[in-house]
């Protein structure tokens, strides 16, 4: 029917949109973030010759590498989607097995001993289901699991945005003042390309 076609098409658009978001995020992190931050510590120049002072000031300025932080964020955001996908695959596989058992009956000697048996089971289950007619077709509902997965993804995004704010802020300053041992006085350090990094 038209509704089934619309739902299939919209879920296909949703999958394409999700893949585009993931690819765009990875492209921004790898193609823009890595070249911008790969020489960050070398270009972090402090107006002191005190040994170790520049390293301590850089550690205070950036407790975690921005680039590594964004990689961890991207991978973490993918985990709820991966868990949801595994859950859906498991439920669909169990549904196919139950459907086959209800049509043919499950016997002890009809175990799934190899991938070939599973492939035959899926093929016969689909054929049998088509033979049953449109009135008996049932659709598995994953809206609850999808909502939970979406909630966790949103929660992770918010947590990483808060962590980004508390670790680095949202703007990169041109100058960072630092006074910490082994620095003997307040030291001014200068960050490379602060405007580009803020953008």
Automatic annotation (TrEMBL):
Example of a GO biological process term: cell-cell signaling
Sequence intervals crossing the membrane: 12-34, 69-89
SMART domains assigned: CNX (SM00037), Connexin_CCC (SM01089)
Domain Connexin cysteine-rich: 156-199
Principal location listed in the UniProt entry: other
Alphabetical keyword list: Cell junction, Cell membrane, Gap junction, Membrane, Transmembrane, Transmembrane helix
Membrane topology note: Multi-pass membrane protein
Annotated Connexin N-terminal domain residues: 35-68
Coiled coil (UniProt feature): none
InterPro entries: Connexin, Connexin_CCC, Connexin_CS, Connexin_N, Connexin_N_sf
Subcellular location: Cell junction, Gap junction; Cell membrane
One Pfam match: Connexin
Gene3D superfamilies for this protein: Gap junction channel protein cysteine-rich domain (1.20.1440.80)
Gene Ontology cellular component terms for the protein in this record: connexin complex
One of the record's GO molecular function terms: gap junction channel activity
Subunit details: A connexon is composed of a hexamer of connexins.
Family in the record: Belongs to the connexin family.
Protein function: One gap junction consists of a cluster of closely packed pairs of transmembrane channels, the connexons, through which materials of low MW diffuse from one cell to a neighboring cell.
Entry protein name: Gap junction protein
Encoding gene (name): Gjd4
């Amino acid at each position: 029917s038209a509704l089934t076609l619309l739902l299939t098409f919209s879920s296909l658009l949703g999958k394409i949109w999700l893949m585009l978001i993931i690819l765009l995020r990875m492209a921004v992190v790898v193609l823009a973030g890595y070249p911008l931050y790969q020489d960050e510590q070398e270009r972090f120049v402090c107006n002191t010759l005190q040994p170790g002072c520049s390293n301590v000031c850089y550690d205070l300025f950036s407790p975690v590498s921005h680039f590594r932080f964004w990689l961890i964020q991207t991978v973490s955001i993918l985990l709820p989607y991966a868990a949801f996908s595994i859950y859906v695959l498991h439920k669909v596989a169990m549904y196919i097995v139950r459907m086959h058992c209800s049509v043919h009956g499950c016997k002890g000697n009809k175990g799934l001993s190899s991938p070939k048996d599973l492939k035959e089971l899926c093929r016969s289950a689909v054929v049998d289901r088509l033979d049953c007619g449109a009135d008996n077709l049932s659709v598995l509902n994953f809206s609850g699991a999808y909502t939970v997965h979406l909630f966790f993804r949103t929660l992770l995004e918010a947590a990483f945005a808060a962590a980004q704010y508390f670790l680095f802020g949202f703007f990169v300053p041109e100058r960072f003042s630092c006074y910490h041992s082994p620095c003997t006085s307040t030291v001014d350090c200068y960050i490379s390309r602060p405007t580009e990094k803020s953008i």
